[in-house]
Amino acid sequence: MTFDHLDSQLQFARLASETPALTDGSWSQLATTVHREVASLSEASTNQLRRSVQIPPERYLEELTAFQRWMDFAHANATNPAIVRAQVMTELYVSFLWLQDSLMVPIAAVLPAGSVVSAITTFLGTGACERLREAVVHGRWCYLPDFSGLDCWTRIGTDQRFEHFEVGDRDLNAWQLLSRGTAIAALLALTEG
Amino acid sequence: MALGCLDKQLQAASTLSEAPNLSAETWSKLATTIHDEIAALDELTIRQLRADVLIPPERYLEELDAFQRWMEIAHANRSNPVIVRAQVMTELYVAFVWLRDSLMTPLGAALPDGSAFSAVERFLRAGTRRRLRNAIAHGHWCYLPDYSGLEFWSELHRGQPHERFVIHDVELGNLQLLSRGTAIAALLALSTAIDVVGDHDV
Known about the structure:
The complex is a heterodimer of chains A (193) and B (202).
Chain A: H1 4-10, H2 24-28, H3 30-39, H4 43-53, H5 57-76, H6 81-98, H7 100-110, H8 116-124, H9 127-137, E1 141-143, E2 149-155, E3 162-168, H10 169-191
Antiparallel strand pairs in A: 1-2, 2-3
Helix pairs in contact in A: 3-10, 4-7, 5-10, 6-7, 6-9, 6-10, 7-8, 8-10
Chain B: H1 4-10, H2 24-28, H3 30-39, H4 43-52, H5 57-76, H6 81-98, H7 100-110, H8 116-124, H9 127-137, E1 141-143, E2 149-155, E3 162-168, H10 169-190
Antiparallel strand pairs in B: 1-2, 2-3
């Protein structure tokens, strides 16, 4: 199975300031590659994965399908700041919290360390993405004054000091796309047949 | 300052199956009480609190104001499942994740143990609410089959298997009301932009 449209969309993720270390070949067919890796799992691994994910993959797909239609609604109402703020909040939540620990981490755990899924999941859970995730999960973010991205804070070590950092729209959009696109390809593989 | 509209709305939270231990009088004017508790802090403490919170209280109020307008849009589109799902997601995130660590925790630390704010803040980060928060933060939740609430999974203790819990809409709505209403009352006290008060709905 190929995912030409999603493959093409996911190439935009290469424009981020930090990206997962993948070959050009993988980047050009990212969704197709992720789908193939998950679809090639043995039946026993797939069954184990469905149990460890707790929420049936079909429910994730249902929610992501609704989410895509919500994005369409939000894009059609892009001049309404209340809708745009709700859109940003749901994008951050879905991409950096909802899909990661409950879905992508268990999927990556059953795939080989050298897999594309593993590389992307590791990327989204470390470095700049990890700091952003921490800011989202602790509510330590707000808009930059010109709304060109986010002001974020993350804790330094275990004390009460925080490091401030900014994430521009391009990185945000690229990382969100990477998170959701990868999840969709993996979920389609888990729900086939 | 009296926050009559918010006080009235927050009384619904007193009917929670588990509720913060507050007197009937405090429940009858919870938002006003919380506002007054924070407004009574000395200037030094207020300045320290504003620094601890990191994000200026005015920015929280701006976001909560936009959130309220989004809720009105969502209510006007309640027959559209796509909008309702986005609404649920934003309500969960705002009430249990966004407001908690960054705002409620530092405020709770600055107020005396016996204050109404501390009682609410402690309540929201304990028991079922803590498990619900963790489930939301880690994406371990989905709708009940009949959409009457959520099922969620949480570790009772770190490293132990996740257990399944259920929370129904009325309970969930009242917890969200308590979280957002408390935050609004506190932010209004912390904020210098007092002219944004109006009649805030949650």
